[in-house]
Amino acid sequence: TRALTFLGIESSCDDTAAAVVRMGDAGPEILSSVVAGQYALHEAYGGVVPEIAARAHAEKLDICVESALAEAGVRLDDLDGVAVTAGPGLIGGVMSGVMCAKGIAAGAGLPLVGVNHLAGHALTPQLTDGLAFPYLLLLVSGGHCQFLIVRGADDFTRIGGTIDDAPGEAFDKTAKLLGLPQPGGPAVETEAAEGDPKAFHFPRPLLDRPGCDMSFSGLKTALLRARDGAMAARGGLTRQDRADLCAGFQAAVCDVLAEKTRRALSEYLALSPAEPAIAVAGGVAANKAIRARLEQVAAGVGARFAAPPLRLCTDNAAMIAYAGLRRFQLGHRDGMDLSARPRWPL
Ligand code: KG4
Ligand code: ZN
Question: Fewer CB within 10 Å of terminal CB in the chain, N or C?
């Protein structure tokens, strides 16, 4: 079969990204993946400001696409299609990306394929590790937390998820409450390495309830209470207190994710997958303690464990190019009426 080459475009949150992915007989290959973050633009506001994000995407998309094509050594003529995140996400940013993709597709006479951002994350372990369908995926980021059975390139079954905060959000809030820098995940992980996870008590929310749903907002309340208790007792927060609080919080997240993954795995294994595999994706998958725990859970049932490299765990356009390419292979095409969707469940 002929190789397929797709351009991918991503602009649903605070990263502007473009990438080129080629699918040949030997499997998919990432020819380039360019990501321009907007972190510095939003830092002073303590969070992503949608209007600033949309404007920055509109400004940076062209240059990201040009760089991605140049790095891949690919001209528009060499492409077989353009894939773009059409949601879910911040509507202004998604619209910027969709308009950019439409312009390129119309100008170069290429097929256009709209992609669900979550499908991009969900298909990443296949792109990076060659996992066969069906596989179990834990998607954990600043905005998402769900278990998906990935059955095909456009076939996903959600079997549970958070009922309130995403774990990344909980890491970020923990960092904020302890005066650590944002994004909070890496800072909390570093502190946790020096701390005693048993020094403070943290709950293990929803473990007493059946199923794979999770809750992380209670951990923030527990952290606040433990922090204030320590401050009242010692007239301030010591370095050790801070490390202990981080360690306790992270251990609670690990326990919850591990136990819920165990349950999700048994539900998945009931499908008798030929090559049982579990994968993690999303920014929180960068956490080494969490990875190690999930790896243990997978090993416990003889399932393969896959965690994409960090730059492909967080938002990027290679995953969008790949998801679009796979949708294209299934016959999906979008027209110039493709619209940006702020909400779009998988
Ligand atoms: O996937 P991502 O880049 O963006 C979305 O949320 O879609 O994920 C970012 C999130 C942030 O909340 C960040 O704190 C978290 O991933 N994160 C981590 C770590 N590195 C990033 N959380 C825990 N441990 C880490 N090492
Ligand atoms: Zn994402």
Answer: N
pTM for this structure?
0.92
What's the count of helices (H) and strands (E) in the chain, helices before strands? 11, 10
Q: Is the CB of 184 under 6 A from ligand 1?
A: yes
**Cα of 19 from ligand 2 centre, angstroms:** 15
Radius of gyration of the chain (CA): 21
Query: Three-class SS of residue 286?
Result: helix
What are the pLDDT digits (tens) for 241-291? 999 999 999 999 999 999 999 999 999 999 999 999 999 998 899 999 999
Note residues around ion ligand 2 (Cβ under 5 angstroms).
315
Q: Which are the contacts of 173, defined by CB distance < 8 A and separation ≥ 6?
A: 165, 184, 220
Would you say the CB of residue 172 lies under 6 angstroms from ligand 1? yes
Residue 45 DSSP one-character state: G
| CATH architecture classification, 135-274 | 2-Layer Sandwich (3.30)
β-bridge mates for residue 158, sequence order? 148
**Residues 37 and 112: beta-carbon distance below 8 Å:** no
CATH topology of domain 4-129+312-329: Nucleotidyltransferase; domain 5 (3.30.420)
